[in-house]
Amino acid sequence: MSKQQVFFEDLGTMPYKQAWDLQESLLRKNLMAKSEAFSSRPDKNRRPQTTNYLLFVEHPPVYTLGKSGHEDNILITAEEMNARAIEFYSTNRGGDITFHGPGQIVGYPILDLENFFTDIGKYMRNLEEVIIQVLAEYNIDSGRSSGETGVWLEAGKPGRERKICAMGVRCSRWITMHGFALNVNTDLSYFNFIIPCGIQNKQVASMEKELGRKISMEEVKQKLKQKFEKVFDCEMSYDNGLVVHQ
Q1: How confident is the model at residue 246 (pLDDT cuts 50, 70, 90)?
Q2: Residue 206 in 3-state DSSP?
Q3: What is the dihedral of CA 129, 164, 180, 88, to 10 degrees?
Q4: Per-residue pLDDT for 217 more than 70?
């Protein structure tokens, strides 16, 4: 049986709203394929022709609030955000408040989980596993924190817990969007103005801070793609004309 194909594109640096709109358009395309297949096909066992994508992007500074988030976790006023050239969006992903900015690799998988497995919990654990395996390549020991999503360092040591990768997703008819944000060379001072992910008294981390040096973003991206293929048992396709962006 052939592996699922995932179309990859690196969007470079792109404003948050533009990347969000792109995700929504790809999700709608897949939802339409499902609707048309289920309404018109005579063979009920035929699969709809949905397409899997993985997008990488860096965003200019932006705070995003998940649909279950609380604005009390934002410790900065709108005026102060404007003065610091930080955007803000309330989103339709899960989770609370987080930051995206330069030096951070944001990954947006738009997957039809019916092509893989219909288990959102397993999907989240797989995303975490991709990051854990990448960090291990740099001798960064990471793992999960009970009851909390994302990837953590020293999760079981009170006062030392720090999140290095935040996650928040949306899933509609088993089509995913949003995803993960891995702090590579991220300026962590931006997190001082929020309560990251709404979790009190826990810190954030970056690969740069842990290793004491700048990390090649391209190298990390290559490792992310490799581990994604391994964990999700898929194959990347590099048809650069597939996703149109500015």
Answers
A1: very low
A2: coil
A3: 170
A4: yes
Q: What are phi and psi of 235, to 5 degrees?
A: -125, 135
Asked if the structure places residue 210 within a domain, the reply is yes
Burial class (CB in 10 A: 0-12, 13-18, 19+), 218: exposed
124 falls within a domain? yes
163 assigned to some structural domain: yes
Q: Using alpha carbons only, give the angle 170, 121, 199 rounded to the nearest 5 degrees.
A: 75
pLDDT tens profile 150-161: 999 999 898 899
Write out the residue range of the structural domain in which residue 158 sits: 4-237
- The count of domains in the chain is 1
Q: How far is CA 76 from the centre of its chain?
A: 24
Residue type, 22: L
Quick check: 245 pLDDT over 60?
no
Q: Please name the residues in contact with 43: beta carbons below 8 A apart, sequence gap of 6 or more.
A: none
Supply 15's token pair.
């404003």
**This prediction's pTM:** 0.93
User: Which one of the listed residues 165, 171, 197, 234 is annotated catalytic?
Assistant: 197
CB 130 within 8 A of CB 231: yes
Q: Is 171 considered catalytic here?
A: no
- Max alpha carbon distance in the chain (Å)? 60
- Residues 15-29 have pLDDT tens digits of 999 999 999 999 999
Q: Is residue 242 part of a domain?
A: no
Pairing of strands 104-110, 52-58: antiparallel
The distance of Cα 129 from the centroid of its chain, to the nearest Å, equals: 13
Across the chain, what does the average pLDDT equal? 92
User: What CATH code is carried by the domain that includes residue 33?
Assistant: 3.30.930.10
